[in-house]
Structures are given as structure tokens and as C-alpha cells.
Write a structure and sequence with these properties.
Order of helices and strands: HHHHHHHHH
Protein name: HTH tetR-type domain-containing protein
Radius of gyration: 18 Å
Keywords: DNA-binding
GO molecular function, one term: DNA-binding transcription factor activity
Strand content: under 5%
Number of helices: 9
Length: about 190
Amino acid sequence: MTSRNAAATRQRILEHAQRQFAQHGYAAVTVKGVADAAGVSPNLITRYFGGKDGLFLAATQVEIPVADSFDGDRSALGSRLAASIVQRWFGAPGEDPLLALQRAAGERPEAAEALATFLDTNSLEPLHRYLRDSGLDDADARSRAAAIDAFVLGVSTRRRILRSELGDPADLQAWLSATIQRLADG
């Protein structure tokens, strides 16, 4: 097997793992199930990822370009964040590594810790800094950032994890935008 084929095979395994972990959570996914979906031997998953735990960690690497949402005036923060959130939730349904982490957080302590660390680093702290830099005092900026973070996580959990319908993207975006803006403005 050439290294290019190995890289393509590894990527195919990861894509199937992301989809399965996001849709079913950690416990329900098996190495054999991912291998079958990817059209490979389960031994390759062990070789590339060291087993199910390693596969899960690789499949749940999350990147969210939050900086774009903080580029502009606070009066339009809700609109920018809502657009980014809705695009993520509707962009690749069933394949979002953040969704896989959310689903697994209840059953895997390391997933809960990874999710908390990710949200602190990529959501809560940048939002706190943005609100502080927009003219709020530090304590007010921190509490508003925490409220927005908790609101978005709650909506995500309710609508994505508990498998309620996300609803119409435009309606969801308008509601998120207005609510986030109210939280940002106090």
C-alpha cells in the first residue's frame, strides 16, 4: 500500500467514524462497524488509531473559526454568531465532531473534559475578551459570555442531542440572533 493510499484510507475511516460517533454516541459504535462502513479490515483501525479510544479522539478533533464572529460591532454580534452556528448545525449533519463530543460527554469522562476545554478555549474565553474589549467591564463581560455560552450549549443539546427537530434554518437563525443579542446587550 502506498503512503497516499494509506492517507486516503485513514481519512475514509475517520469520516465514517465521525459520522457514526455523531449519530450514535461512543458506546454504540464498534470498531467493526466503522471498518465495515469504510470498507476496511478492523485491523487497520487498530494499526492507524490504536483501537476505539484512539479512533474516537481522532474523530472528535474540533475546529471552529470563531474569530470571524468577533470581527465587527457588538450591535451585530448575535447575527454573526447565529449565522455561524446555523451554518455549522445544518452544514454537515451527522458528521460534526462537536456533536460527537456532546453525545459522548455523558458516557466518557475524557469526552466531557475535552468538550469543556474546547468550549472554554474556543467559545467562552474569546467571547469574554470580545465583550470586554467592546466596552463592558470584566465581570459583566464574563457573566454575559457565560450566559451566551450556556444558552447555545443548551439549545444545541436540546435540538441536536435529544434529537428534537432543528426546525427551519432561517427561523432558528433569527431566534438565536435575537436571543444572543439580548444576552450580549444585557
